[in-house]
Amino acid sequence: MDVFVGITGASGAPYARRLVQALLAGGNTVGACFSGAATQVSGQELYGDLRMERGEVIDRWLADTGLPAERLWDPHDFGSPYASGSARWDAAVIVPCSMDTLATIASGAGSNLLHRSASVALKEDRKLILVPRETPLSTIHLENLLRVRRAGAHVLPGMPAFYQMPETIQDMIDFVVAKVLNLLGLEQSLLGEWDAGTKPATAPGHG
Ligand SMILES: Cc1cc2nc3c(=O)[nH]c(=O)nc-3n(C[C@H](O)[C@H](O)[C@H](O)COP(=O)(O)O)c2cc1C
C-alpha cells in the first residue's frame, strides 16, 4: 500500500512517528510531509526542544523512522505524486490533524501538500483518515469534523483507551496507531503484542 502521511502542528507527533515506523515495517510505501508548524511541535514532543531547527528535527525524525529522505516532501512541492489524482497512491493519513488543517480541508481550500493530498483523496474516493487533536472542541471544530466525515473522510481522534491498562506512553501511542492501521485495512501487531503480554486482553467489541 502507498500511503501519504501528513503531519501538522497539532499535539500528537509521536503518533505520526510510530505510524511511519509501522507502515515501513509492514513493507508499505510511505510519503511523508511536515506542515510548517509540525516540525516545531515535533521538536518539542519528540526531542524536548520547541526551538529546534526544522532541518535538525527532520534529520532526527528520518533517522528514527528509517524513511529515506527522498520520501519526505516539502509542504509546497505540488509536483509530488501525492498532489495528483493521476498518481496511483492508495490513502492519506493526516496525523495529528490540527484544527487549522481540519478547517482548510473542510472548506475545500488549500495552501500546502497536506491540504492538497486530503482534497485529492476525497475527490478520488481514496481513503482519508484524519487524526484530530484539540480539547475542548468549539462548535466550529465539531461542524468541520462532521463536514469532512460527510465528505467521506474517516475521523479517528487521537484518543487512547484505558481499559487495556496501559503501562507506558508507548502503549497509549500504539493503541491509536493500531486503530489507524486497522482502518487502512493493514495487518498490525501493535495490539496483538499487547494482548500477548501480561496485560489483560481487551474485551471483545470495545472501541
Ligand atoms: C506545542 C504546541 C501544541 C499545539 N497543539 C495543538 C493541538 O493539539 N491542536 C491544534 O489544533 N493546534 C495545536 N497547536 C497550534 C498549531 O500548531 C497551529 O494552529 C498551526 O497554525 C497549525 O498549522 P498546520 O495545520 O499547518 O500544522 C499547537 C502548537 C504548539 C506550538
Outline:
By secondary structure, the chain is of the alpha/beta class.
Describe the SSE topology.
Layout: E1 2-7, H1 13-25, E2 29-34, H2 38-47, H3 54-65, E3 72-73, E4 91-97, H4 99-107, H5 113-123, E5 127-132, H6 139-150, E6 154-155, H7 169-184, H8 190-196
Parallel strand pairs: 1-2, 1-4, 2-3, 4-5, 5-6
Helix pairs in contact: 1-7, 4-6
The structure holds flavin mononucleotide (FMN).
Descriptive report:
It is globular and about 40 Å long. Helix 1 (13-25) packs across helix 7 and helix 4 (99-107) crosses helix 6 (139-150). The chain has one domain: Rossmann fold. 43% of the residues lie in helices and 14% in strands. It has helices at residues 13-25, 38-47, 54-65, 99-107, 113-123, 139-150, 169-184, 190-196, and strands at residues 2-7, 29-34, 72-73, 91-97, 127-132, 154-155. It has eight helices and six strands; from the N terminus they run E-H-E-H-H-E-E-H-H-E-H-E-H-H. A six-stranded parallel β-sheet has the order 3-2-1-4-5-6, sandwiched between helices. With 207 residues, it is α/β, with parallel strands linked by helices. The protein binds flavin mononucleotide (FMN).
Number of helices: 8
Going by helix content, strand content and strand pairing, the class is: alpha/beta
Sheet of most strands: 6 strands, parallel
CATH fold topology? Rossmann fold
The low-confidence parts are 200-204
Shape field: globular
- In CATH, what is the homologous superfamily? Flavin prenyltransferase-like
Helix percentage range:
40-55%
Tell me which CATH architecture applies here: 3-Layer(aba) Sandwich
The fraction of residues in strands falls at 5-15%
Q: Order of strands across the biggest sheet? A: 3-2-1-4-5-6
Order of helices and strands: EHEHHEEHHEHEHH
**What's the gyration radius in Å?**
16 Å
Our measurement of the CA-to-CA distance between the termini, rounded to an integer number of angstroms, reads 25 Å
On the 0 to 100 scale, the average pLDDT is 93
Number of strands: 6
Q: Which ligands, by name, code or SMILES, are bound?
A: flavin mononucleotide
> Any idea of the CATH class?
Alpha Beta
Count of the separate structural domains: 1
